[in-house]
Amino acid sequence: MLPGAQLVFSNTSFDIGNSLNTTSSMSYKASQELSEYFGQNTSNFGTSNSNASSFIIVTNNTPLQNLKTYQELYSVNTKLSSYSSTIKGFSSMNSIISTQESILKGFSKGMKPLISNATILMTNFNNVSTIYNSTAQLTLGLPAFYLGVYSKTDGNKSISYEKTIGLAQNSSFRQLSTTYVNILSGYWNSSADTSPNFVKTMNLAINKTLGNVTFVNFVSSAKELKQTYYLMGSIDQNVTLSSYINSPKGSILNYTINLISLQFSANKAESYFITDVLGVTIPYLVGLSFNLSQPAITQQIQGVTTQLVVNAAYREFYGNPVISINKNAITGFIQYLTNVSSLEAYNAYIYNYTIFQQPVMPSQYAMSQLVGIGYSTTLIVININQSYNTTNCNEITSISGTIQKNVSNSSVIVTGSETLNGQINNEVTTGLVEALGIGIFLSILIVGLYFRSIKAAFMPLLIFIFSAMISLGLNGFLYKYVLHTQLSFITPTLLLLLLLGLTSDYVVYIMARYRKELAEGQEHPTVVSSRWAGHAVFTSGVTVVISYIVLWLSHVPIFSDSGLTNAIGVTTSIILANTLLLAILHRYGRKILNIKDGKEYKEYKGTPGQNLMTKVGQFSTGKKNTLIIIFIVVSISALTFYFITPTNMDIFKLIPQSSGVQSIEAVNASFGGDFFDRSFIVVHFAQPLIYANGSFNLAEMQKLSMIENTTAHMSGIQGIFGPTYPYGNFISLSSMQSYPGSTAQMYLNQSRSFIGANSKYAEIVFETSSLAWTTPASVTVSNLNNALSANTSNLGYTYNIGGLTEGFSNAYTITASSFSEMIPILAIAIFIILLIQLSSVLTPVRLIIMVMASVIMSLSISFILFHYIQHLPLIIFMPMFAFITLLAVGLDYDIFMISRVKEEVIKGKTEKEAIIISVKENGGVIVTLGAVLAVTFGSLYISTLGIIQEIGMSLAIGVLVDTFITWPFFVPAVMLMLKKYNWWPSKIGAGKQ
């Protein structure tokens, strides 16, 4: 059975949230729908790969605005990235630093060719503008200059010519300019004296000069002048001398704009770059280039280019849900990037400036996924496709820990999807080992003192070991290979401690009867012990087994598998107590009890404390009326107190403040909501949300938008994500078209990601303001459920809510409902068993009522201890499990008493005499059994898991109440009051009164 026993521990789940999900709950149905229609394997956290693991590093008091802190986070991020890549199964690492690295690197690479292309474009524009402008100065500027001098010198042709030819000789077109002026002045001189309109006369002279044979031949003799000649003619045809004289730059600018616009409009690639990428018009660019010096210097080109690229960046990232432009840093970065490579610019900025000083940064949405409010708490998430080991955890913790050393007042918490489970595993395992150690030690001590024998002291331990190995083995194989499911984290602890306590009870009770039969000289002590003590053990054990089977069939979260495992364990213990134990006693009983072979046990004085227990029996039977009144008053008071004390599902408050819990609380405090345990809604519509052609069904999308708005505005919800809230804020389908193409596509893709493969299904993810497992979160989700259900018929949809909060609420509802159903079923089942075993109708009813009253008393005491004194939450599982266990276990001692009383009545004793004898002879053993069982259950209090503490102490208190109050005082009083009706309809002891 050892391999099977190992399977129990290797097949145990320490995921508390997942243990709460039951197949009949709404949260389970939502998870199934999410898996089926969205391809997501879910736990209780909404969407997660069940085969994946993750490390989550939470840094507190690490303000990103501080350069030193930012650099420390950057260094740690780099080291974590480098180490994580060596972990087998590593898939990705997400942090605000890695996000910023990706954004800045992509931005730098994207802007560099944009800068280069814009620079080339502006240089070309300026070169063309320079050529056009200088040619215009030649074609129109020299004539205009001539006229200016002519008018200032009162028509002095000589001075006008000399100054104009001097200007021509200093131009870049010296030979061409000189020839042009000489021919032009000749035409001017021949006609200027006869014309009153000098501008018109000069215009005519220009036309004649350009057509002059000498000038044409001169230009034709030099190939490099031909293009200039053609441009001169174009300028003469398109720009008048009068307009040039009035506005030299303006007239040629308009001409240049028109000419270049025609040229570039024909080039689709360049036209797209200018209008769609840079977001400006060609005339605007020509104007910019024309207004620079001609030719422009590098700094001028770069200045214009920088502004163009900055504007292009604003245009490109307008409305981008992930990236935002930093207006205070973008211009300086583009200027710097102009002269260096994209990698150099990236390296210069990524480490030497904080995120808030860099040109681009994560949007508010992207920031909120990794940084808390106030930018002082950050998350680093390392995703791995398989389970990680302790070495990985230690190394990542070591790397992350340097932040605390180098950043004052900071703190770092390392947790993850497996870390919390691992911590609970350690707590449970440590608590189990310690509790078993204490329980075994005290059991040996108490039993040894009771029997005054070292050998007898170890008999319960021996039978416990066999019972534990067999039951663990059976359960291991059953759950692994038959049921194909995992045990909850609490099951092994409850199984082993229950087995230790009950096995000790059964063994001690049978051994005590065996010793009594030896003392009385019984010829077959083993047979008699089996007939009476063994029968009593069997009867009481069967009630325990039935109780746990009912628990198992109820499918209560976390505890239902304890029902089956405990039933198997107790059955094993009963069988071993009635077979192996009796065989050992038959063969070695005298040696175990230190009785020498062949010697009568003359020194036997009875069980310890018989004189005291005789007085207790006499008191209980003598004061029966008073005790019955006290019993009724105490029972009613306890019942009232029980019902007015609230229970809940705040289970994580009963878990030690491990790094896992601390990280969740820290993130909740700084992010303003439960970031880790988001809930979700899967909505099913009558019609598809997306048609086969890919377009949206606007009518159904309108309904979905109403559901999302209802969710978003629900009190207690921090934020939502869904088809119309793709990045946490509402956006209509029509408004998406106002964004740049790539941005609009991002919104569309994100929206469609919340619509299932079957497009009649949509997912809405929401985050509660309070931690998912707390009562406020449960109230919020309940209110949301009510709001959504009110519109299902009007809008024609169905839905299921999933996630940890709904899972906890479902678990509470199911547990409360199952609890109320289990009690009558259990009572009826136990009644039938006792009816058959005791051949009595009233005694089983009396037993059940009194044990229930005893359980209520003990639970009330537990409530006072935990809720009113220690101010701890009372998880609903505690009273449920304690009630079921104590109802079954509490019957043991009553059955032991009933069996003894029945035996004496059959022998002819009156009820009173039989009761006193039973209390006298069973008192010592019952006190011993109760002490063993109480310290066994009580040892669970050393566990650091509050839920195990509560269960252990409630069971211990219940055993103590039953052992020292109910059994010795209330039970005898009630039995004596019933007298012969104890056995009705049997005729036991008739006529003996």
Notable features of this structure?
993 residues; alpha+beta
From the N-terminal CA to the C-terminal CA, the straight-line distance is 54 Å
Number of strands: 12
Uncertain residue segments = 41-51, 598-604
* Residue-averaged pLDDT: 86
Radius of gyration: 46 Å
Strand content: 5-15%
Given helix and strand content, the structural type is alpha+beta
Number of helices: 38
Proportion of helical residues: 55-70%
Summarize the biggest pleated sheet.
Answer: 4 strands, antiparallel
Q: State the shape.
A: rod-shaped
Q: Largest beta sheet: what is the strand line-up?
A: 3-6-2-7
Write structural notes for this entry.
- By secondary structure, this protein is an alpha+beta fold.
- It has 38 helices and twelve strands.
- The strands form four sheets. It has a four-stranded antiparallel beta sheet with strand order 3-6-2-7, sandwiched between helices. A four-stranded antiparallel beta sheet has the order 10-11-9-12, sandwiched between helices.
In summary, what is this structure?
Helices cover 68% and strands 6% of the residues. The protein has 993 residues and is of the alpha+beta class.
Topology overview:
Elements: H1 2-10, E1 12-13, H2 16-19, H3 26-38, E2 53-60, H4 67-84, E3 90-95, H5 96-152, H6 157-169, H7 174-191, H8 198-211, H9 213-220, H10 223-238, H11 241-246, H12 248-265, H13 268-277, H14 282-290, H15 298-316, E4 323-325, H16 330-339, H17 342-350, E5 360-362, H18 364-368, E6 378-384, H19 390-406, E7 411-416, H20 419-451, H21 454-457, H22 459-482, E8 487-488, H23 491-519, H24 525-553, H25 560-578, H26 580-592, H27 610-622, H28 624-644, H29 659-671, E9 679-685, H30 698-712, E10 717-721, H31 741-753, E11 761-768, H32 775-789, H33 792-795, E12 797-802, H34 804-838, H35 842-869, H36 877-906, H37 911-938, H38 946-978
Parallel strand pairs: 1-8
Antiparallel strand pairs: 2-6, 2-7, 3-6, 4-5, 9-11, 9-12, 10-11
